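Please check this.
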Amino acid sequence: MELLYYFLKVSTCTMLFFGFYLLVLRKLTFFRINRFYLLFTLIISFIIPTLHFTVERELSQSPIISTAQFPPDAEISGIGYQTPILVGNEPALEEGFDYYLVLPYLYFGVVAGLLLFASWRLLQLVKHTRNSVEEVNGLKIVPKAKGFTNCSFFNYVFIDEKSLTETELNILLKHEEVHAKQLHSIDKIILMILKAVLWFNPIVYFYDKALEEAHEYEADEATSKNFGTPEYAGLLLRLAISKSEMPLVHNFVKSPIKARIKMLFNSKSRDMKKLMYLLALPIGLGLLWGFTVKVVAVTRSPKPTKEIKVAKKTTLNRHLFGKTLKGRIKSILQTEVGEILNFKYNETTIEIFNFPKGKIKVGEELLVTINGTVDDITVKDSKGNVIKKLDRPCYGMSKLSRLNGDVLYELTTPAIKNQSSPKALNPQDVPKRE
């Protein structure tokens, strides 16, 4: 199914791009720009559905908690559960044939067949190029009186010299020289491949016809400037009955003669009309947005504010206040409101709230000055509602430093006033935990 959706998107892209060309750009005399527009939009139609972009749209939403209330005496029956019924060994129903499984094989089979057929015709064409006997202005002349004639493939020109005068031959060679120099045959090969891949889409055949039309208009314009428009138009009419049956060549009169002659006598489009090609940008952007961009709603809570209070009334041992302890970080406990250090000095381990979060590692030896306890840490949202809270008190610090003197944290305003200056703690002053 993914392959089907992909080709539906490709077909939609080609339909919109070609519709714009048909309604707006086809009558403009900027033939080379039209050629590149057709090639680019056809190729980009295969690329757009493969792109994927995600756009996040932020939603500010408060959590909603709903609770179902039941009457006190209500009884909830177990109707949602039924005793399983055992069934004997009955034959399983046969599943129907899934035709969707065959579609990919059918599609790729047709693609392979078309590519093989086109390759065979290409080899037949290359085989005829070995008969070239003369080179004129970089063109290799291949005499050919039957089949596809008066046409070109790259710099090989197949000519029925007996049916042309010398003047007509010069005009035809000039026309085919434009095809060769502009590498129009590469466009034909690209369309051959894309038609095989998108064989079920009629738009791709309109692309092929429009691109060949642009090739001929471009060559007609350059040739008529050298030989005159009336003479060139007369040659087109005389050779109109000669048709090519080889799709990979550029036949001198393959495209509709009436349209080509009419275009020869049309006035040239003004340069200002080149701005009309920019009108295709909204189509491309619309297809990109519709097929490649996925909008994802993201709910983000307002950034919470943290309030930390160091209590003056303590619930822990006050004898550590003002003391500087030397010890090692045994572990770091990550809580909803911050980090709590399990600080071990001598044989005692205490919990200290870590104000310089993320600056220390487990196993480091540090000097910590205790200045009180942290009893109350709350995290509030933008409306002042408490959303997180410290679940137990721990010691607070006024200074944290490494043994080499590097200060990691220092409190400028002490939490507890009238306390003695910090001093090193003797091991005998430290009580053992039970």
